[in-house]
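Translate sequence into structure tokens.
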Amino acid sequence: MSELSWWVLGACLAAYAIKLCGYFVPRKVLDSPIMTRVASTLTIAPLASLVTVNAFTSGQELVLDARIGALAAAMIALFFKAPYLVVVLAGALAAILLARHRAGRLSTCSKQMTSRGRGGKVDA
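Result follows.
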């Protein structure tokens, strides 16, 4: 087995051990309001960071593209308590429309740049 396989196996065993430890926690601790608040925060924070990283970065660069509009559309749908499928479809539709709009602007700009190269006049 390679070194990576050992690391993956070790991570799986560690995750299983942590899950197994949860069975030994008394019910009184699990039902406390503090534990409920901590558990909900611990699930929301990593999800929010993943969404942020995936929406605003490409590699190691910050980017502003259709993904941000899609995220905004999904957030608006969530604000109005839309069903999950509607939220996903709103985000996807916004991404498609914004990407097409951006692609249309880029092709228009490249056509103008090409036509200006011929005598400085813009073709209609």
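Note: The mean pLDDT is 83.
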